[in-house]
Amino acid sequence: MTIEVLNLVTTEEATFFQKQCSALAERGIELETLAVPERPAADEHRSPLSYARLVPRAISRARDGFDIVHANNGLTAPAALAQSRLPVVISLWGTDLFGRFGAVSRAAACGADAVIVMSDGMAASLDVDAHVIPHGVDLDVFRPMSQDAARDRLGWRSDRYYVLFPYSTERAVKNYPRARRVVDEAATSLDHPVELTTVSGVDHHDMVRYYAASDALILTSRHEGSTNAVKEALACDTPVVSVDVGDVAERLAGTDRSRVCRSDEELVAGLVEVLPSEGEPGGERRAVTELGLERMAERIESVYRSVLAE
């Protein structure tokens, strides 16, 4: 039986959402997407009116032969639940649950036929059962490559350590000032200069070079669901030094060089240990080999079929 899904999403251009749709389409799932109108400027929030305008569009399209409405991001869930014809699956991404409008996501989850979350910690914070299905990684794109070759392409030097912060410095939730403080402190204990390199707004496929060229990725976020940057870095065999947010501890549990930290002191010590380390090739990538796009799509399809069977 072919399943037809009406996707609701905050930002249709989000790379991980596009990857999810492509992986589901390869399994024969038919998809249509409605996005919240009026995309805001960078680092601004949409008004509640933008989300309200999604409601009549969702109600209207839900009448046109779909089997399921899938609300991707909790802020689209009220529009999914506003129609009463079709079962609703909600995927919560992280900030929608732990951010300023988390109450909306929690309330919507109670009305859904199924809820998907990115981590065990997210599941534990809800009053309903949830399926833990992290965003998948394109393991064909994100793979180990020569650090020297990657640095040559980027124009990076060979006589220093590079620590990657793969976000805009303006995204408050990512806490760039803490990353800056930690890297500066770690540099005082190392025998080579250390550069904290920020990257945002580049083509997603180009990120593989930044991961490969870096000696480590640092994550200092205030909260996360299941951050794609961590999984992509691991897939490139790049170690991660991170605070204990989202599913980071679970992701790093099977690695050789990465560190989960709970204080600035531990983050500094983690970088000092990780940056000079050669480690075992492949030790980081092995931790994400079960997180490919195909496995993610298989599990989401299983949720769809379970909901329809009920």
Give me the secondary-structure topology.
Elements: E1 4-9, H1 15-26, E2 30-35, H2 48-61, E3 68-72, H3 77-82, E4 88-91, H4 95-98, H5 102-109, E5 114-117, H6 120-124, E6 131-132, H7 147-154, E7 161-165, H8 176-187, E8 194-198, H9 207-213, E9 216-219, H10 228-235, E10 240-243, H11 248-252, E11 259-261, H12 264-274, H13 293-309
Helix pairs in contact: 1-13, 7-9, 8-12
Summarize the structure in words.
The chain is an alpha/beta fold and 310 residues long. Helices cover 38% and strands 15% of the residues. It is built from 13 helices and 11 strands. The strands form 2 sheets. The protein has a 6-stranded parallel β-sheet with strand order 2-1-3-4-5-6, with helices on both faces. Strands 8-7-9-10-11 form a 5-stranded parallel β-sheet, sandwiched between helices. α11 links the parallel β10 and β11. α1 packs across α13. The longest helix has 17 residues.
N- and C-termini, Cα separation: 15 Å
Q: Taking Cα atoms only, what radius of gyration do you get, to the nearest Å?
A: 20 Å
The count of strands amounts to 11
The percent range for strand residues is 15-25%
The overall pLDDT, averaged over residues, is: 92
In helices, the fraction of residues equals 25-40%
Structural class by helix and strand composition: alpha/beta
- Write the element-wise H/E pattern from the N-terminal end onward: EHEHEHEHHEHEHEHEHEHEHEHH
* Strand order in the sheet with the most strands: 2-1-3-4-5-6
The number of helical segments is: 13
Q: Describe the sheet with the most strands.
A: 6 strands, parallel
Approximate shape? elongated
In terms of per-residue confidence, which ranges show pLDDT below 50 for 5 or more consecutive residues? none
